[in-house]
Design a protein that fits this description.
Number of strands: 0
Shape: elongated
Order of helices and strands: HHH
Helix content: over 70%
Radius of gyration: 16 Å
């Protein structure tokens, strides 16, 4: 639905174009928020409980810190930008899993 708003704003109304920057940042932040839980569950299913717990803690801590800093500095846009920025070390951590 958010992608439809980016491609053709007339479907959702012309007032949505004001929020285009927020929608783009929110879309970029989705993988960080979703992949942490996904990989945590995958590792738990593979009976690798230590790595599963670690990935949940690392992802949660990074997203919490980045959200706090982002909101403190730049309100909602900062929150999304912080989550996108927090995704970089998260992705690096995911790529180096055993």
């Amino acid at each position: 639905m958010a992608t439809i708003g980016l491609v053709n704003a007339d479907l959702l109304g012309s007032e949505i174009t004001r929020y285009k920057a927020y929608v783009i940042l929110a879309l970029l932040a989705i993988p960080t928020n979703v992949l942490g839980g996904f990989f945590s569950h995958v590792l738990a299913a593979a009976q690798n409980t230590t790595a599963s717990a670690m990935i949940a803690v690392v992802t949660g801590a990074l997203l919490t810190i980045s959200t706090y800093i982002g909101i403190s500095l730049a309100k909602i846009q900062g929150m999304y930008l912080g989550n996108v920025t927090a995704g970089i070390p998260c992705y690096n951590y995911y790529c180096n899993l055993p």
